[in-house]
Specification:
This protein has helices at 37-45, 93-104, 110-120, 135-148, 165-182, 193-199; strands at residues 3-10, 15-22, 25-30, 52-57, 60-64, 69-70, 78-81, 153-157, 185-189, 202-207, 210-212. The chain is an alpha/beta fold. The strands form 2 sheets. The protein has a 6-stranded mixed beta sheet with strand order 7-8-9-3-10-11, sandwiched between helices. A 5-stranded antiparallel beta sheet has the order 2-1-4-5-6, covered by helices on one side. Strand 4 (52-57) and strand 5 (60-64) form a beta hairpin. Helix 2 runs parallel beside helix 4. The protein is globular, with a radius of gyration of 17 Å.
């Protein structure tokens, strides 16, 4: 899978301009606050429509200003991991993991489910609800939910920022496995150099809305 990005979006105080490609592995997006990092991944997710440009994944066009294409988020086949896990509180861990299959109207692949449960260490949590989970456990469920949604690419917006150091160290190995086993592009926003050094196969730096060397 290759994600190709060429987009421009104007704000009153700066213009976001990003041109890059991301293939399998983890592309870290770093830069100071207000540089445009979250705006960039929200545009890739379809939550923001850029003013100009083109976004495609493996030659499937998600956005094209010229061709007047703006594929809605739910049809982009994108997995989004937020700062907070955003699990459904009334569902069990197992139900949260498989919720993507409900929206696709397709049965969950039992082998993929078993694999996700194994690599994320969730077998003892399946019957529990989010209110009974730690922050690290919730993020592991969120990672599993994204894996099982069969996305073409994954976006992660500072997914460890709400966790203390011990929980961060607990979750990082799961992102390493996600990077190494999914074989799809992962775009990962972070301010933490330690996370980037450990996880990134490629790094993009934004400053004032512009990609810098």
């Amino acid at each position: 899978m290759t994600l190709q990005v060429d987009l421009t979006h104007h704000f009153p105080d700066f213009t976001l301009r990003a041109v890059f490609e991301a293939s399998c592995g983890l592309t870290a997006i770093c830069g100071p606050s207000g540089a445009g990092k979250t705006t960039l991944i929200n545009a890739l997710a379809g939550l923001i429509e850029p003013d100009d440009g083109r976004i495609e994944i493996n030659q499937r066009v998600l956005f094209s200003k010229i061709d007047k294409i703006h594929v809605p988020t739910e049809k982009r086949r994108v997995g989004y991991i937020f700062q907070d896990a955003r699990l459904f509180p009334h569902l069990t861990v197992r139900q949260n993991l498989t919720v993507g299959s409900w929206f696709r109207h397709q049965p969950i692949d039992s082998h993929q489910l078993a694999h996700a449960i194994e690599i994320l260490g969730l077998s003892h949590l399946l019957a529990r609800r989010p209110a009974t989970l730690s922050g690290g456990e919730k993020q592991r469920v969120a990672i599993g939910r994204v894996m099982l949604s069969e996305p073409d690419f994954i976006l992660a917006d500072e997914p460890l920022s709400s966790l203390d150091l011990a929980r961060k160290l607990e979750i990082i190995p799961y992102f390493e496995r996600l990077r190494d086993e999914t074989r799809i592009p992962i775009l990962y926003v972070s301010h933490q150099h330690e996370e980037i050094q450990r996880l990134a196969t490629k790094t993009l730096t934004l400053n004032g809305g512009q990609l810098v060397p």
